[in-house]
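S1.2 Input.
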Amino acid sequence: MYDTLKEELPKKGEIMIRFDSGEEAELHLHNVEFLEKPIIKVEADDRTHWFNAKKIERYWIHEDF
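S1.3 Output.
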């Protein structure tokens, strides 16, 4: 999942993710850093989050129609 998100985020700019716990989060091109696999660092809400890509069960892209 790490490699897929790293490849897709620059193309889409924003990706929604859902963890195996059911929690959801958004990844935005401007606030995400792909660290050493599988860790994704996100600067959001005046906080820093470290996500384990191995815990992400699915992702989807917002589409404007």
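S1.4 Remarks. The CA atoms of residues 22 and 57 lie 9 Å apart.
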